[in-house]
Amino acid sequence: MGLFGLGKKPGLGIDIGTDAIKAVEIVSQGDTYEIVRVAETQLAKNLITDDEITDIEKLSKALKQNKKSLGTRAIDVVGAVSGNQAISKQLAMSLDLDDEAIAEKIETEAEALIPFPIAEVRYDFESLGEHPTMPGQQRVIVTATRTVSVDTRVQALEEAGYKVRIMDVDNQAILRACDHVMPHLHPDLYDNKLPLMVLDISSAAVQTIVIGHGEVMFTRYQSGGLTQLFKALDNDGEVDHGQIFAKLRAGETDDISPIILQDFLGNLWAQISRGMQIYRSNATKKDFAGILLINSGAMLPMIVDNIREQVEYPVISLNPFEHFPLPSKYQHLQSHGPRFVEALGLALRSFTPWHT
């Protein structure tokens, strides 16, 4: 059984993050889509640590709560593992090979391609079409992850009443969402020949993703994220991190030590700039059309402003709900759009075949 294609396509994407579950349900409307339901449910601290689930039963209960809030009858769902848990390699193969032949070749060369025992792995692949510099060859991207990384998430979702039809990788879902909304929201950046850098700043990590020409060109995962700042401000755990986040969103920082904020922003930029350096060390195109900020960090003005001060590229806080209007009863989540980018990409996966 492959990593991604587990059966019939659903229309519901669920992003299980370290701090919250985000769900998006979409329906097809002609050549586009419509969001019909969204829901966000906070998770207990340390329920997911280093992308591993520490308590499947508690996570399943949170998923049930999210499902109730969503009010959906859909049970087919698309989930994802972290790109930190997956390995992707791009290969050149003969254009004459079809999906079956590509799969056979991957199986034959699995030991060289995948640094895990093949019995412990789920994998899938996608042909990206003819190779631009190697006549008669096609580019094939192979993505693999340990079976346990998939199975724990599948178990939690199934115990919540879902049928997991597809398991994706988070950076591929982010790519898919960006490819769908950027031509509408920022066509000048999307049409630029230079790649886009996506900064996924969550409570637990900073993931740097470079995308271009419909593919993930680079990804780097670094633990840390917003939690470091929250811990510095929570008065030894007495203040809820949600309260701190809301205060920072509103720009209410007058009573916060400037040194704490400056240290956090300095460390964050050091992580980001290091990711840029590593990407550029092997890239032919070393500049970017722009920087897209997503997830919780994209909702904090001080982070957006600080990154804008550091670079000459346009810096966009990407909110997909600016393209997909939310039903009126979900308007309170309108400004939370940057946190739903991955969930939207997973929902879109329902209508996008992996093999081209």
Notes on the protein architecture:
By secondary structure, the protein is α+β, with helices and mostly antiparallel strands. The protein has a single domain (12-229, 261-349), classed as ATPase, nucleotide binding domain (Nucleotidyltransferase, domain 5, 2-Layer Sandwich), CATH 3.30.420.40. The chain has eleven helices and 15 strands. A five-stranded mixed beta sheet has the order 13-12-11-14-15, with helices on both faces. The protein has a three-stranded antiparallel beta sheet with strand order 1-2-3. A three-stranded antiparallel beta sheet has the order 7-9-8. The chain is globular. The two termini are 18 Å apart. Residues 11-178 form the SHS2 domain.
Topology, please?
Elements: E1 12-16, E2 20-29, E3 32-42, E4 48-49, E5 52-53, H1 56-70, E6 76-81, E7 86-94, H2 99-108, H3 110-113, E8 121-130, E9 137-146, H4 147-159, E10 163-169, H5 170-185, H6 187-190, E11 196-201, E12 205-212, E13 215-223, H7 227-233, H8 241-249, H9 258-282, E14 290-294, H10 301-310, E15 315-317, H11 341-349
Parallel strand pairs: 6-10, 11-14, 14-15
Antiparallel strand pairs: 1-2, 2-3, 4-5, 7-9, 8-9, 11-12, 12-13
